[in-house]
Amino acid sequence: MAQDIVARTMRIIDTNINVMDARGRIIGSGDRERIGELHEGALLVLSQGRVVDIDDAVARHLHGVRQGINLPLRLEGEIVGVIGLTGEPESLRKYGELVCMTAEMMLEQSRLMHLLAQDSRLREELVMNLIQAEEHTPALNEWAQRLGIDLNQPRVVAMIEVDSGQLGVDSAMAELQQLQNALTTPDRNNLVAIVSLTENGGAETGAEQLWPLGR
């Protein structure tokens, strides 16, 4: 993610970009040799919670620092890192906020994608447990409630079989992933899981296991 931020911003602004983590270590940079170095300018930003300009005179007294402007990166109100632009601070000031805003939007998008993926995995695991369970236990009901799923809601069970023999394993998995993405859009509120019919006794047995989920 840090290097993605660097690459995207450096395509727009002709200056080196550094991204530092919450400990002040460079984790992304246009100058890859600097990755892993401690950036004392970032430590100032992290400790003071503000934008820090560094000119040549100050840079000479700090470790791993060149002149430039360093801004705090915030996610949900918390400082999670620092983004630095190398060059004359005064000339970079007009770009600093824009670069910082772009980086924060990328971080927020990444966080949301992670949450969506996590929610999708938990929903899929719930479906697998519902298939294997003989009845809805209190634990399964609580799990469903935490995910905002009403197990008493009437549902229709559908089983889609993809022939991996004809498509090949990789193509079949790609096909299944596309189907899952299409079926799990938020407005549909579907419960979807990918299961192996081979391991579960074939299509007929799979249908028998899924049937109790519909009501």
UniProtKB/TrEMBL annotation:
<protein>
    <submittedName>
        <fullName>Sugar diacid utilization regulator SdaR</fullName>
    </submittedName>
</protein>
<dbReference type="InterPro" id="IPR008599">
    <property type="entry name" value="Diacid_rec"/>
</dbReference>
<feature type="domain" description="CdaR GGDEF-like">
    <location>
        <begin position="136"/>
        <end position="210"/>
    </location>
</feature>
<dbReference type="Pfam" id="PF05651">
    <property type="entry name" value="Diacid_rec"/>
</dbReference>
<feature type="domain" description="Putative sugar diacid recognition">
    <location>
        <begin position="1"/>
        <end position="130"/>
    </location>
</feature>
<dbReference type="InterPro" id="IPR051448">
    <property type="entry name" value="CdaR-like_regulators"/>
</dbReference>
<dbReference type="Pfam" id="PF17853">
    <property type="entry name" value="GGDEF_2"/>
</dbReference>
<dbReference type="InterPro" id="IPR041522">
    <property type="entry name" value="CdaR_GGDEF"/>
</dbReference>
